[in-house]
Amino acid sequence: LVTILYAVFEKRKDTVNFWNLRKTLPSNVDPMVLKEIDEKLSSIQLIWKRISIIRNEVVGHQTLSRDREESNDAAGLRLKDLQSMILLCQELLKMIAQKFHDTSIVFNLKGAESFEKLVTDLRASPTFEHDVALASTFR
Length: 139
Prior knowledge:
By secondary structure, this protein is mainly α. Helix 3 runs antiparallel to helix 4 and helix 3 (about 30-60) runs antiparallel to helix 5 (about 80-100). The chain starts with a helix and ends with a helix. It has helices at about 1-5, 20-25, 30-60, 70-75, 80-100, 110-125, 130-135. It is built from seven helices and no strands.
């Protein structure tokens, strides 16, 4: 999940991401619509910055400058942040689809149930409280 959420804001020019999607908007966009889109992008980016710490230091690479727990503390990322980012991304995609493509998007959230079950199982595990890095991530 961290890798997927990281990818939606990765600043590479050769990938599909929100930055490249933003560049495809028509030049004659209503300034109020553009402001609303940019505000959503800013909200998403605040969470993404914390996701990027986890992705870059724990998931995608392993830094030598901090251990897992220190990286988790530095990111300050919580389960509710991941949920918020997913919802904000959905809202943004719906907005862009409706305003610029005369269409709507339906999200299949069956995977969300599996994710919630995984988190519930992790929290119920006797080792959960002893793994400080894991516990701090999924609170």
